[in-house]
Amino acid sequence: MKYHKHQLFKCVLSLCAILCLLKVTAQNEMLNYTLLHVADSKRVSVKIEFDSVSTKDAYLMIPRSAPGTYEITEYPNFIEDVQAITTKGDTINGFRGRGSIFFFKEQVTINSLSYFVNIEHMENDLKGGFASSKMRTNYLGILGYSVFGTIPDLKNKPIQLTIKSDANWPIFSTLAPTEDFTSEATFSIEHFDMLADAQYLLGTDVQIYQVEDAEIPLVIAAYAEGYVDMMEIGRRALVSLNGLSNYFGYVPMPHYTVCYEFLIPKTKAHSYGFSMEHMNSMTVSTTMSSAITTFDPDPNINSMVHHMGHSWIPLRSYGKGYRPFDWEVAPIIETIWLNEGFIWYVMSIVTNKPETLTFFERVLEHSPEYIQRKSLRELSQLGSTQYSGDFNIGRNLFSRGALMAKEMDDNITKATNGKRTFKDALLGLLQWTQKEQRAFAYDEIEPIMSTAVGVDLSPIWSKWQGIITTKN
Ligand SMILES: [Zn+2]
User: Fold this and answer.
1) What does the alpha-carbon distance between residue 312 and residue 307 come to, in Å, rounded to a whole number?
2) Distance 313 CA to ligand 1 centre (A)
3) Distance, CA 339 to ligand 1 centroid (Å)?
4) Taken in order 116, 121, 123, 127, is the CA torsion positive or negative?
5) Could you tell me the strand order of the sheet in which 199-202 lies?
């Protein structure tokens, strides 16, 4: 065939258009996730569909840690029957590799993969209540990072998630909390980090209560193995949210969910009490002996304020390692004392309980010598994987952070005649992250805070970096 010049030009143009379209399509590639709950099964299935990837380099990554857990949690141990479908329609089997990796022996191009997560096995194995998803007769409570994996090269792509229950269980997610939840739900999600960060509650025993008169949609989602007073939980959540809103002067979350599990302990070996923070939610796994059943004029909301406060720091202002998060390794985080201690200090102000600072002082006084001789940074590095495993480390980290915050607050208030406080230093960190859109480096923290309040905080900063010993 012979082309005239202008025909050839047109042809080149169309080819360019097609290539551009392909490029845009590739950039906008969306991953389709489907989570299926089947009645009476101890497992859930997950299917991930995508354009295509080669198994030469691509693998399925299942998280082994999550921001704020500061530990290795072997979620890959509960993954079963990994399979992929090739672009030719063949099914191939996946194999467990080292760490977070599931790989395929054949070098082929695949466009979907699937696997099961054994929820019962997970809960039997992980003894800390905060770490595992749960399955009961009429309840399935899922922590995103405990069931969802990704192909690392595709982790920044947008996601369409569909959740189905063949038992027609209602489905709730912290991604879009609503009282009107249904048995099939679809969510559009920015990328894998947000999919993994959210919680998914299914079942006829899930109770949902939307708190009235809150600044943002504020929802309580609970599963309880006995009676609980949802309105009272909601009232406490509202007091917590209002206190934090008054302190910081704004609320950065578009909505917020407090997820509660009130459980009869699974076994004597299981422990409960640690809670976990997420971008727009918190999860509390506790026992029925701590059930909230009635109005209390002065309830202990310390933990609720603390975990909700994490939605400001560190979830929206953080040091290196915290975000973007390396799901496969439990990364080294040098600012755990800031993440935890600064927010415990904020809690003491919001709840008007300065006496909690005495507790932090006592923790330092009674800390074992192997903790005392660690610098702040070294202790935080240790805490990156052993925060609650050896809670001497966790307690010491947040106590040092809270007492540093207190000393800074006193100093700032005095130097500025009360015009500025520690809060302004925190707002400095939050505004810095908002502008820079990245984690702050360790050496950037003190200058950001000092600049924000117009007070040189470096002497206090330096003092707390070193070894803190109470022994003469
Ligand atoms: Zn915390």
Assistant:
1) 10
2) 9
3) 7
4) negative
5) 134-136, 139-143, 199-202, 171-173
316-472 shares the fold of 206-311: yes
- What's the gap in Å between 213 CA and the centre of ligand 1? 27
pTM score above 0.90: yes
Q: Residue 428 Cα, ligand 1 centroid: separation in angstroms?
A: 20
Tell which wins on pLDDT, 335 or 24. 335
Distance 244 CA to ligand 1 centre (A): 15
Residue 255 CA to ligand 1 center (angstroms) comes to 20
Dist. CA 284 → ligand 1 center (Å): 12
The CATH number of domain 33-126+144-200, selected from 2.60.40.3650, 2.40.160.40, 3.90.230.10, 1.10.150.290: 2.60.40.3650
C-alpha closest to that of 298 among 244, 370, 352 = 352
Q: CB of 426 within 8 A of CB of 470? A: no
Q: What kind of fold does domain 206-311 have according to CATH?
A: Neutral Protease; domain 2 (1.10.390)
Report the CATH architecture of 316-472: Orthogonal Bundle (1.10)
Q: Compute, in angstroms, the gap from residue 340 CA to the centroid of ligand 1.
A: 5
Beta-bridge mates of residue 80: 116
| Separation of CA 394 and ligand 1 centre (Å) | 10
Calculate how far, in angstroms, residue 8's C-alpha sits from the geometric centre of ligand 1: 65
pLDDT, tens only, 330-371 = 999 999 999 999 999 999 999 999 999 999 999 999 999 999
